[in-house]
Design a protein that fits this description.
single chain; alpha+beta; Immunoglobulin-like; Zincin-like; Neutral Protease, domain 2; 3 domains; five-stranded mixed sheet; 20 helices; 23 strands; 19% strand; globular; binds ligand BES; binds zinc ion
Length: 645
């Protein structure tokens, strides 16, 4: 698929976009000019940005530059209610601004303090409704009084029972990809960067944290039983990065600029697992340039959090399923940290170019891991990623499948319900291919420059290509043809210059798998002593899927896999057990599906059950009936789709 630029729109409108860049200097708005980076406070909407098919906004007419929310957290009704103040910029002659909303109840809209004409379009189940506000000439400020729906897609309201402490309720948000509009009425497109601030009023017993600078570390009194918290993000960010959590949350510093937030009951486990965070930030800076966000903290959420991690600026949100007790799953933190460059600093302009967020981050994550824990561990992770890529190709129609391209066409689809493994693993393989061809030193210099040149701006595949040609290829035709840049980005499958990675440690594991699969050894004859989590992942992932019951029983007896506390190991074991219809694993499966809501684990297990037809489907239905109320909408929607297949 070729990129869809803003064809069908008047050329004049494209020219107007330059006026809306938020700065007077033309070169800051022109992505092709190759001049210095925009500063944090001059958000640019480059003239040539393709249309974001997942937003109703028309930023070339009028765009939001700053969002200020003032919200009350109502746990009883499960709503946020209050006001959003939007600062806007308009093109000459603009008569209205279009915002994104989803499920919001609008009470009143004012422009420059006066009641405004506004209308809400018929909602689309995925995109929500366009909120159009009529503007007088030169309007700069809009205020919207509103309230969220208890079903807001971004918000999960937890009962005390769903937390570790069991005594206080909990609220958290998840904005990516297009969910921020379910709690903030704004232009919810990653190419429309906005600075933001917030005042949050919440029950006094709880702490509020957000992905911004906290200006009131202990909160301020706000009436009997309430506290107010103020936050400020002075840098322009994509709206999907605005995040909040409210609960019984404690804090423990880990270093001068790093720390952990989590429930008190989780603090010891979380803080000891994440001790290396400060060194990770140092390593990331040494690789690809300064960390530009001040602090880097991690919030370890209750187990209902639907993702492994979410790179909310200054405050990564993370699942507690990475707390393995032996720091073996901390690559997830390296990943979310890496997004502080790839994703948060340089942001995909729309979701078709998601690989520019995740592929670059996957690559960067591995470089951090290599620096901290050595080449051997990094290689193992790389090989696991390659295997995921191969599986994703199969799952997406084979090597000619359109969704096996890096840039894909998500028009008409919900970006949060699409398989994303290609973006991560093919994206990372692409960067490794470039690195291998030009050499690490030259590659690193280019990537560092890329982050500087595009800092605080949106990126597309086309801008990426233009940058790499201008700053790395530099007219070297032989190099250009060896790199196969266009094949990687616009072509399906595995480009010819991809090189499969190898790990010596995995070679040893594979030899064991082979011996075991051929019946040449029993489970107790497998030398697992000293195996890392990654070797276990390789082992369980490589075992045949059709093992007879006796073999599963033997594996379970020897390694106690039903009780595995490491979530990745437990997950892979349960997949094997379901494939072999091994009933003694069902209680362990049920416990695992009840205890956490991370979609990466939950969805494949339900899919595996359903694939077992009459044996598995009833088990899936029974467990889902019990577990669904604990799942975030993102996870529940995925499971629902699987069960209705
Ligand atoms: N940004 C993603 C999470 C995400 C992606 C949320 C798409 C919504 C839509 C995050 O950085 C991520 O990739 N998380 C991974 C972990 C990572 C180590 C691969 C996850 O959640 O599993
Ligand atoms: Zn990511």
């Amino acid at each position: 698929m070729r990129p869809q630029f803003t064809t069908g729109r008047p050329a004049l409108v494209v020219a107007l976009a330059a006026l809306l860049a938020g700065c007077s200097a033309m070169h800051l708005s022109n992505p092709f000019a190759g001049k210095g980076p925009a500063t944090a406070t001059t958000p640019a909407v480059p003239a040539a940005l393709p249309q974001d098919r997942h937003s109703y906004a028309r930023p070339e007419v009028a765009r939001v530059t700053h969002v200020g929310v003032d919200l009350r957290v109502d746990f009883e009704r499960r709503v946020l209610s209050g006001r959003a103040n939007l600062d806007i910029q308009t093109a000459p002659g603009a008569g209205e601004i279009v915002l994104d909303t989803n499920g919001l109840t609008i009470r009143a809209v004012t422009v420059e303090g006066r009641p405004a004409d506004w209308s809400m379009a018929t909602p689309d189940p995925v995109l929500g409704s366009a909120l159009t506000v009529k503007l007088p000439q030169g309007a700069r400020r809009i205020a919207i009084d509103y309230e969220t729906s208890p079903e807001a897609g971004a918000l999960q309201w937890l009962t005390p029972e769903q937390t570790a402490g069991k005594r206080q309720p909990y609220l958290f948000s998840q904005g990516e990809s297009i969910l921020t509009r379910s709690w903030i009425p704004t232009q919810d497109s990653p190419g429309i960067r906005q600075s933001w601030s917030a005042r949050i009023v919440a029950p006094a017993a709880l702490r509020t944290v957000m992905s911004a600078e906290n200006e009131t570390p202990e909160g301020e009194p706000a009436g009997e039983g309430w506290k107010a918290w103020r936050f400020e993000m002075d840098k322009a960010v994509a709206p999907y990065l605005i995040a909040i959590a409210v609960g019984d949350i404690a804090f423990k510093p880990l270093g001068s600029r790093t720390g952990v937030y989590t429930e008190p009951a989780m603090m010891d486990l979380a803080s000891s697992e994440l001790v290396d965070m400060g060194r990770m930030v140092d390593a990331a800076e040494a690789l690809f340039g300064p960390y530009r966000w001040g602090r880097y903290d991690v919030l370890v959420l209750p187990p209902a959090f639907p993702y492994g991690g979410m790179e909310n600026p200054r405050l990564t949100f993370a699942t507690p399923t990475i707390l393995a007790g032996d720091r073996s799953l901390v690559s997830l933190i390296a990943h979310e940290l890496a997004h502080s460059w790839s994703g948060n600093l340089v942001t995909n302009a729309n979701w078709n170019d998601f690989w520019l967020n995740e592929g670059l981050t996957d690559y960067f994550e591995n470089r951090i891991m290599e620096r901290l824990y050595g080449v051997e561990r990094a290689k193992m992770l790389e090989v696991l990623g390659w295997d995921e890529w191969m599986e994703a190709i199969e799952a997406n129609g084979g090597p000619t499948g359109p969704d096996t391209r890096l840039q894909i066409d998500l028009t008409g689809r919900d970006p949060d319900q699409v398989d994303t493994d290609i973006a991560y693993n093919k994206g990372a393989a692409f960067l490794r291919t470039i690195e291998r061809i030009v050499g690490r030193e030259r590659f690193d210099a280019w990537l560092r420059g890329y982050f500087d040149r595009h800092a605080f701006q949106p990126i597309t595949s086309e801008l990426f290509l233009a940058d790499i040609r201008e700053h790395l290829v530099r007219g070297d035709a032989a190099l250009e043809s060896r790199l196969m840049l266009e094949q990687w980005i616009y072509g399906p499958g595995i480009p010819a210059n991809a090189v499969e990675p190898e790990s010596d440690r995995f070679a040893t594991v594979d030899a064991m798998v082979d011996k075991y699969a051929r019946g040449l050894t029993t489970a107790s004859g497998i030398y697992t002593a000293g195996w890392s989590t990654q070797e276990w992942q390789r082992f369980l992932g490589a075992l045949p899927k059709d093992m007879p019951r006796a073999r599963l029983e033997e594996l379970e007896r020897t390694f106690r896999l039903n009780e595995a506390g490491n979530s990745e190991i437990r997950f892979l074991w349960l997949r094997l057990a379901i494939a072999g219809r091994y009933e003694p694993a069902i209680p362990s499966l049920e416990q695992f599906l009840m205890a956490q809501g991370r979609r990466k684990f939950v969805a494949p297990l339900f899919a595996d059950l359903v694939a077992q037809g009459d044996w598995g489907r009833p088990i899936a239905q029974r467990i889902y009936a019990r577990a669904r109320s604990g799942y975030h909408p993102v996870t529940a929607n995925s499971v629902q789709a699987i069960l209705s297949r």
